[in-house]
Design brief:
Blueprint (H helix, E strand, L loop, with lengths): L1 E8 L1 H5 L3 H18 L5 E7 L7 E5 L5 E5 L8 E9 L3 H8 L10 E6 L5
Antiparallel strand pairs: 1-5, 1-6, 2-5, 3-4
Length: about 120
């Protein structure tokens, strides 16, 4: 079964890292992928998202038409910064794998959720 591993954090902490510190964190992230990719547990390498200031939010307006605003609508300290899809037997295994993720500046929490499968 597939599980989404959502990586939360304050992207302002991430952008405040020095280039050397960012490189160190990325080495840890690459090592995590090198550990889990050969096991077949990573179904999709996922995506890293740009800072929240680059976002646009689309919501239904009063007349039902779309309203687009710059940035995230809600003022949140933690936002989703990346998503990785895992292939695991159950959510407990997915959580065990997620628990090995190298949390660092700008990455304060992980959430694991089953991916919907329809049809």
């Amino acid at each position: 079964m597939k599980y989404a591993m959502l990586i939360f954090g304050d992207d302002r902490e991430w952008t405040a890292l020095s280039p050397a510190d960012e490189e160190d964190v990325m080495k840890q992230v690459y090592a995590w992928f090198e550990r889990w990719q050969p096991t077949g547990k990573i179904a999709d390498g996922g995506v890293e998202l740009q800072a929240r200031e680059t976002a646009k939010t689309v919501r239904a307006g009063e007349n039902g038409g779309p309203v687009v605003t710059d940035g995230p609508y809600l003022e949140l300290k933690e936002v989703i910064g990346a998503v990785i899809v895992l292939e695991c037997e159950d959510i407990d295994e997915a959580a065990r794998i997620a628990a090995t993720w190298p949390l660092a500046a700008g990455m304060s929490a992980l959430e694991v959720r089953p991916v919907m499968s329809r049809g």
